[in-house]
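**Reference record**
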Amino acid sequence: MPRPVVKRLSSRYIAGTTLAEACASVRELNSQGKDATLDVLGEEVTLREEAAGLRDAYHRALVTIAEDDLGSNISVKLTALGLKLDAGLCRSNLTALVEEASRVGNFVRIDMEDSSTTSETLALYRGLREDGQDNLGVVLQAALKRTLDDIDALGDLRPNVRVCKGIYVEPSEIAYQEDETIRLNFLDALEALLDLGSYVAIATHDDWLIGEALALVERRDLGRDDYEFQMLLGVRPELGDELVREGHHLRVYVPFGRRWYEYSIRRLQENPKLAGYVALDTLKRLRP
């Protein structure tokens, strides 16, 4: 797809190319009673220098968040920090960011990528947690059949987990294919994590899932500091506004950076359904 077309489609969902633009988006979200998580775009790096550059970009983001008193943490993809190059390099880069986040009183979320990285991601998460790094969370995908087993394996850590459906197209041997089954597994994962006493980030734009999650929050008499909802920048903001008005904690995922084109194309390639959703949304906004 031509870059101008992709830029037009993605402009609502990506907060610009610079840290300053991303911080402006975070300030606007904060003024609406919403927190954020910053994602510096970049993944599947092929050079150690690229991984170092992305690490440094995250470092600048953490420093700026602290200096400007922004309501935001960071989300990192391990392939951006060198996971496919050298696991030791990736761990070193991740550790540096987690230690910097701890120094400024912030938090790091490890994003989950496709199934080829799941085991290594969870192993790195466990390793840092066992080293005493508590300001660290991870993501689990309801589409994967292994997720409930992964929750059980992480139980001793009382992990801080973002639960999402998962956007990656995976084979039926390892992933559920039916939307309803994924939804039910999402709820089972929420229940299992809450049974462990975990802090859970409920990441979805699905009306039914949000309704079921709200019912679960009420049944368990959870306080506002026991969970949060998460949404993507530019996706159903009116639904996010409603959750905030009702007193729930909402965090918005804010991607930015010069790799916006690669990020957008990869998302469309990994899940072609997204192209339809984005195109439909764009057409709605263009209608007089």
Observations:
- The chain has a mean pLDDT of 91.
- The two ends are 26 Å apart (CA to CA).
- The first strand starts at residue 35 and ends at 40.
